[in-house]
Amino acid sequence: TLAAARQANPGKRIVAVFQPHLFTRTRDFHRGFGRALGAADRVWVTDIYPAREAPIPGVTGELVARAVTPPASRTAYHADLATLAGAVAEDLSPGDLCIVMGAGSIEATGPEILALLGGSR
Q1: Shortest CA distance to 85 belongs to which of 22, 37, 12, 17?
Q2: Which of 7, 64, 85, 104 has fewest C-beta within 10 Å?
C-alpha cells in the first residue's frame, strides 16, 4: 500500500496513520507492521482495536510504533483515538498524502482529518 502510494505520488510526503487490530496480532506481528510502516515519511500509530479480544498486558500500539524501521522521531504513538485526527491535521502540510489504515474504530479518522483541514488538502 505505501510502496504503491509512493510510486503513484513521487515527491510527496507520505503520512501513515495506523490502528493495529487485535492484541494477539499486534503481539505476533508488530515488527512486520513496523517494517511496512517504515516506508512512510511520517508515521502515527494509535492504540489497538480489540474487536473480540481481551487486552494482553504490555501489548499496545506502542509496540508497533517502536518497531518502525528505520527508527526516528518521525514516528508518533498517539493512544487517544479521540484526539488523533487533530494531532495529525496539525502535522500535515499542503501536498502531503495522508493514508489512514486499520480495521476498526479508525474509520472515522480520515474524514475527521479532512474536515479539520477544511476539506482543502
Answers
A1: 17
A2: 7
Reading across the β-sheet that carries 97-102, which strands appear in turn?
75-77, 42-45, 14-19, 97-102
Residue 27 forms part of a structural domain: yes
Confidence (pTM): 0.94
Give 9-48 pLDDT, tens digit per residue: 999 999 999 999 999 999 999 999 999 999 999 999 999 9
Rounded-to-integer distance, Cα 106 and Cα 6, Å: 22
Cβ-contact 89, 5 below 8 angstroms: no
Mean pLDDT of 54-83: 93
Domain count, the chain: 1
- CATH number of the structural domain spanning residue 52: 3.90.190.20
Cα–Cα distances (Å) from 28 to 17, 42, 64, 65, in that order, read 20, 23, 11, 14
